[in-house]
Amino acid sequence: MARVVPLLRRRFVLLAVTALCTLTAPGFAAAPRSATAVVNVVASFSILGDMVREIGADRVQVTTLVGRNADPHSYEPTPEDVQALTRAQLLVSNGLGFEAWIPRLVESSGFAGTQMEASRGVQVRHLQQGEVLDAGRKESRPAHGQAGHDHEHDHDDHSVGSVDPHAWQDLSNGMIYARNIAQALAHVQPADSAYFRQRATNYIEKMKKLDAEVKQALAAVPEEKRTVITSHDAFGYFQQAYGIRFISIAGVSNEAEPSAQELAAIIDQARKQKVAGVFVERSTNPKLAQQIARETGSKVGGTLYSDALGKADEPAGNYLGMFSWNAGRLVYVLGQ
C-alpha cells in the first residue's frame, strides 16, 4: 500500500494538471459546420454551462447565469439575465430545488422556450442523520418517498430527509446530465441531433474512464482516514459513489455559519469521529475550516470545488478537471 499510494498521488497530480487538455483530445474536435443555426442556450451555473459547451461545441451559444467562483445559493438575477433568457431557445437548470430563483426569473423574462432540468432521471438522495454538524438545529423530518416532490423542496432546508441537489458530484450522474443535455439540444435543433448525441457519447466515455480512476485511487485511502469536514453538504453523492465520508458545517447551503456554541459542538464531534482532513470550498471563507483543523489536529486539505468551477485556465476550470482536482486533493491529503 505504501508504494501504491504515492503512485496514485502522482497519477492525480497529472490528472489535475492535464484536465483542461483532455477535452481537446480526439473525439472532441469540432465537426464541419452545418447550415443550421446556432442554438442560444442559458445555463443556470458554471458546471452546466461547461457541459452544454462540451456537447454543443460551435453549434451552441451559451450564457451562464452564475459564473465561475460564484455562489449559486446566494445568487440574485440581474436585468442582463432577464434579457439573456428573453433571447434564449433553451434553459438548462439543475432542478431538485437547487436554483430557487429560476421560477421568478422565467416569469419576469416571459421565457417561452424549452426548459430542461439536467438532473432528470438521477436517483435522488436525502440528507441523513449525522451528515450535518449543526448542533443548534435538531429538527428531523422523515425522508420524502417520491422524487417528484423534491423539486418543490426548499433548498435551504437542512433537516434530515431534505433533498440533496448536488447530483453532479457523482460521475455516473454526470453521464445522465450529458444525455439529458444532448436530448434537449436535439429537441431544439433536430437537424443536429446526431452531432449532439455523438459528442455526448464521447464525453460520457471520458467520464467513465475518470470514474474508474477515481474509484481506484480513493480505494487506497486508509479506512481510518476516510472522514473529512467540508463547508457545506455538497458531497453526499461523491460519498455514496467513492467511499469518502463528508461531514458538513452548515448543511446544503454554504451561507450559514455556526454560533460559538455550535462551533464548540462541531469541534467536539469532529474529534470523536476522528476527522482526518478539513477542506474549504472556493466560494467560502476558509477561516472557520482552519480553526476546526487547529482545534482537532486535522490536516487542512486545501480547496475542493462543489457548486462552481474555477477559472478557465485553472485545473478545475471544467467539469472533468474539477472532478480530477477534488479526487487528487483527497488522495494527497488523506494518503499521508
From TrEMBL:
Matching PROSITE patterns, A to Z? Answer: TAT
Q: Which organism is it from?
A: Pollutimonas thiosulfatoxidans
Compartment(s) where it occurs, according to its Swiss-Prot or TrEMBL record: Cell envelope
The answer to whether keyword Iron applies is no
Q: What's this protein's family per the entry? A: Belongs to the bacterial solute-binding protein 9 family.
What protein name applies here?
Answer: Metal ABC transporter substrate-binding protein
> Cellular component GO terms, alphabetically?
cell envelope
Single GO term (MF): metal ion binding
Where does the record place the region Disordered? 133-164
| UniProt entry keywords in alphabetical sequence | Metal-binding, Signal, Transport
- For whether the record's keyword set contains Ion transport, the answer is no
> Which residues lie in Basic and acidic residues bias regions?
134-159
InterPro entries listed in its UniProt record: AdhesinB, Bact_metal-bind_prot9, Lipoprotein_PsaA-like, TAT_signal, ZnuA-like
> Which residues are the signal sequence here?
1-29
**Gene Ontology biological process:** cell adhesion; metal ion transport
